[in-house]
Amino acid sequence: MTNEMPRCPICNDSLSVRLAYGRKSGKPFVMPICARDGRHFRGFINHRPYVEEILEYLETHDKREFGR
Ligand SMILES: [Zn+2]
What is the distance in A from the centroid of ligand 1 to the CA of 32? Predict the structure, then answer.
């Protein structure tokens, strides 16, 4: 799954995926972030099927690998 992540445009490291929650909506979204330095790149994915796929993955795997 994380193999499908794009790479950081600054350092070319693969991006790690975090789960974040909208401040107002409280809805989860996926945040790809540069594993080396968060200032390089940080994105937002709000595509529901993808977000739900990540949520499902978290329920069956160790949550710590996502940095929460
Ligand atoms: Zn980077």
Answer: 11
